[in-house]
Amino acid sequence: xxxxxxxxxxxxxxxxxxxxxxxxxxxxxxxxxxxxxxxxxxxxxxxxxxxxxxxxxxxxxxxxxxxxxxxxxxxxxxxxxxxxxxxxxxxxxxxxxxxxxxxxxxxxxxxxxxxxxxxxxxxxxxxxxxxxxxxxxxxxxxxxxxxxxxxxxxxxxxxxxxxxxxxxxxxxxxxxxxxxxxxxxxxxxxxxxxxxxxxxxxxxxxxxxxxxxxxxxxxxxxxxxxxxxxxxxxxxxxxxxxxxxxxxxxxxxxxxxxxxxxxxxxxxxxxxxxxxxxxxxxxxxxxxxxxxxxxxxxxxxxxxxxxxxxxxxxxxxxxxxxxxxxxxxxxxxxxxxxxxxxxxxxxxxxxxxxxxxxxxxxxxxxxxxxxxxxxxxxxxxxxxxxxxxxxxxxxxxxx
Length: 399
Fold this sequence. Notes:
single chain; mainly alpha; 0% strand
């Protein structure tokens, strides 16, 4: 996309709202998933099948993460400002709330309700998850949603290389470098449909992240490009995927996430581009309304801590109050959903926002002193989420 000589706004409105809605969908997915057994061929009423695609919410998180991270480089000739500085800022932004959520999850998983059928977390869980290596090494999980954080961490290492290829060659080259190997791997698998495990998902999901990175070029595109109907392009790109899923059924769709992820990423990227260019106006107004802005601000925290709360409600509280099945699901929505959102808001104020508003311990400590004012720095985009597992919960993402 061609750079425009006209000045551009620093803030891209609506992205936090998108992030908040994606996180909320993941919560609903987990309420559905752990209430009705048999995923993906669930025992839930068919009308609730719309809630079974938590993995795609995590894919959206990854597209949005790539887009958000690439906004500043796109405005500076696709330069990141230094690999070491980028990685330090990402670690500063995601690790403090992640480690706090890890401690909370360990306590709940060990003493209240287990988070995995593999058994309670152990020493290997603390080591692997503490070092954010869960996409590389297996260990009993303390929180099923953490799988996508490991994927995201690996994609951060890829990000400077993607910018280098984008800067020296083209957007098409950046996409091709990560997408073609994934397509070849898929075609060579048995039945041309690879079976995914509990980790090593980052190579497969790299193309959706890079799609978001490349899509960020819209912020410096010419006015003619920015005025294109990106929202309608997103709808047209999504229609074939949605039609295929409708024809084949939801279970088939879940069992073919390997290809669905790649097929839906362009539509997701164009949707984000549409919002970034202020269209459609009614959607941007909705996404920038105060409730969604508040939800967006706490979306990373919501993704990190909601699953232990949902599991406590479903497996420890609901059996004493309501019958299994649909009554438990409704009870979880009435109790688990508002508790998760409220707890995430509080959690974000303690463990997330201070690290978004300050980029060093010195700044953080200065802000905590009485009568000291520290300018709020530009927020960094939260992670996903997400990111669900290949048929497993975004609890596994599903960021």
